[in-house]
Amino acid sequence: MPSFLHTYYAEPISIDRGEGGYVWDLEGNRYLDFFGGVLTTMIGHDHPRVTAAIREQAGKVLHTSTLYLSAPMIELAEAIAERSGIPDPRVFFTTSGTEANDTAILLATSYRKSNQVLAMRNSYHGRSFTAQAITSHSSWSSTSLSGLQVQFVHGGYRLRSPFRELDDDAYTEACVGDLVQLLDMTSAGDVAAMIAEPIQGVGGFAMAPDGFFGAMKKELDNRGILFIADEVQTGWGRTGEHFWGYQAHDVVPDMLTFAKGVGNGITLAGIVARAEIMDTIDVLNFSTFGGNPLSAAAGLATLNTVLDDDLQGNAKAMGARFEAAMRPVADADPTIAELRGIGLMWALEFCHPGTIEPDPARNAAVHEACKRHGLLVGKGGLYGNVMRLAPMLNVTADELDEGIAALTAALS
Ligand SMILES: Cc1ncc(COP(=O)(O)O)c(C=O)c1O
Predict the structure, then answer these.
(1) Apex 62 CA angle, 60 and 66, nearest 5
(2) Which end of the chain has fewer CB atoms surrounding its CB within 10 Å, N or C?
(3) pLDDT digits (tens, 9 = 90+) for 358-394
(4) Cα–Cα distance between 41 and 263 in angstroms, integer?
């Protein structure tokens, strides 16, 4: 396997099995899983409803392709379209978030007949040629080649923004002002789209103030520029407050992309777009595995569990419980420059005390210590100095408290 794949931990672990919020390694050690393979196992390992749906579908048919009608795919498309908030929606399934974003850019550039795209600083949108072009993390950028003309705008990552001292409204105003100037000074003709994660995932759960993207979109609308919300990490109620991350911003995107959690571990991703945009593609286009019956069955079972069990409500309640416990711990720890998050996505940004100079070594040490205390957490951030925590959407209060105790012990 390639050297660019890397494993967590000085002594990597091999996960053998999982049940609910826990996983076991090959040596039989049990860990509380607060990362879900990067927010992808979303409602617990071996969830009875999802496993049953996969078993049932596996016994019927695994793959047919979109050359034939497929009941699970159509049912899932209808369920996602209905909840997308996007008017006259069309859903196209892909196999990864990268491919979903690639499709969004294909649609936007075709619809607007422009190769100019805006993305946010500190963004991550995937690993492919197109997705890397709209990603602004030098550690993930292996090429500068692209057929796109991409400009990166301010706003997603407040802690390291030149406008960080400003209050919410002034911060948003400054970023919108910068967007206007960027467009006035640097664009040539029409710009196709702006793509943004409502909360930046790989970027360390960095958040703009509520309403930020609505304010940005007003300027985009003035120029006909489309807005794409990358909901790969923020969708399905994870933020607790909303079903989609974009809903904190008083805005309706022209397209949204989804992946990760919706299949609870099975390969499933896609894009929702207004019909007039989706139908820009007037030649043949298809994805062999996109929306295959097995993925769609897993997706339906996952989505219906999220809705039937009100897991968005659980994310909100457990998020409040997490913050109440961790805010005082973070305030008392001089190496934590910021505790930020909402619902069930929380980040600790480690810096040298009294500064915002990143301290990836401290993050690495706490990461290892969490493992010793039986807790799996993630890393992120531009400098690798951010810890990411994303418990299952159905995490119980006992599991959450166990994770908080392990994290607190690891920090000290
Ligand atoms: C916000 C966001 N968009 C897109 C992607 C790419 O998804 P995938 O790895 O499924 O291609 C990721 C993956 O981490 C992501 O976090």
Answers:
(1) 115
(2) N
(3) 999 999 999 999 999 999 999 999 999 999 999 999 9
(4) 8
Q: What is the pTM of this model?
A: 0.98
Q: 38 in ligand 1 pocket by Cβ < 6 Å?
A: yes
**Mean pLDDT calculated for residue range 186-200:** 96
| Ligand 1 contacts CB of residue 98 (under 6 A) | yes
Tell me the C-alpha distance between 256 and 273, whole Å. 7
Q: How confident is the model at residue 396 (pLDDT cuts 50, 70, 90)?
A: very high
pLDDT, tens digit (0-9, with 9 covering 90-100), for 230-244: 999 999 999 999 999
Contact in structure between 214 and 251 (CB atoms under 8 Å): yes
Each residue's pLDDT tens digit, 246-276: 999 999 999 999 999 999 999 999 999 999 9
Please identify which residue in the block is written with the tokens 């420059």: 337
- Nearest atom in ligand 1 to 98's CA: 11
- The mean pLDDT value for 327-347 works out to 98
Mutate to test the pocket of ligand 1, among 39, 98, 122 (most ligand atoms within 8 A of CB): 98
Q: Candidates 139, 200, 232, 257: which one to mutate for ligand 1, based on the most atoms within 8 Å of Cβ? A: 232
Nearest to 301 by CA among 256, 255, 266, 353: 266
The preferred substitution site among 102, 103, 124 for testing ligand 1, maximizing ligand atoms within 8 Å of CB, is 124
Query: Ligand 1 pocket, 385 CB below 6 A?
Result: no
Is 198 touching ligand 1 by the criterion CB < 6 Å? no
